[in-house]
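Quiz preparation item.
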């Protein structure tokens, strides 16, 4: 039995009538906080640079995803196989320069092709794919990145040259915000709305 098959078997046992009562009571909604926590633990492990810790937390996130898939099957909403097949087909479709005959000359060509393919799939506004549940800072950076791809924003030139310098600049800005008694997360979240209007599309 492969490690993946063993994990599936464990999930099936836990969700069976003779399995774990706690597991059987879970739903897609109740698993959201656990998925969020496990994901942040993986991010923290990656920041630590500890391979053993990264491996452990990756396993936890992977099982959380398998468990969600099994809950979908249990509810008759979708199957884990459908989810895996769907993402496999999407990756092949969005990489025609690898799996097809498309020719590219740069990474920018690959990005442009990706966005063009997404439009053909019916996703007209690239900003619509950015989750509203992301922290405001992460969401803002994703919006900025998308807007630059859409030629709505130009790349900013800066004299700062290191991650530490940028970190210090953000820290100082947060000190100014805190001194005003404002909440940086709320300020940034509200400002993002200016760039989410219906007319801002590709």
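Solution:
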């Amino acid at each position: 039995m492969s490690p993946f098959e063993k994990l599936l078997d464990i999930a099936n046992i836990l969700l069976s009538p003779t399995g774990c009562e706690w597991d059987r009571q879970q739903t897609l909604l109740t698993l959201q906080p656990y998925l969020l926590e496990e994901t942040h633990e993986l991010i923290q492990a990656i920041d630590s640079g500890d391979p053993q810790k990264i491996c452990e937390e990756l396993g936890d996130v992977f099982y959380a995803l398998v468990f969600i898939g099994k809950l979908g099957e249990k509810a008759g909403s979708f199957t884990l196989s459908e989810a895996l097949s769907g993402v496999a087909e999407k990756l092949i479709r969005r990489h025609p320069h690898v799996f097809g005959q498309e020719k590219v000359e740069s990474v920018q060509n690959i990005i442009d092709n990706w966005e063009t393919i997404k439009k053909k799939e019916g996703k007209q506004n690239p900003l619509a794919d950015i989750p509203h549940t992301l922290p405001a800072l992460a969401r803002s950076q994703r919006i900025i990145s998308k807007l630059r791809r859409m030629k709505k924003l130009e790349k900013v030139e800066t004299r700062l040259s290191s991650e530490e310098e940028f970190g210090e600049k953000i820290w100082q800005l947060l000190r100014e915000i805190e001194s005003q008694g404002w909440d940086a997360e709320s300020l940034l979240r509200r400002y993002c709305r200016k760039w989410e209007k219906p007319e801002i599309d590709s």
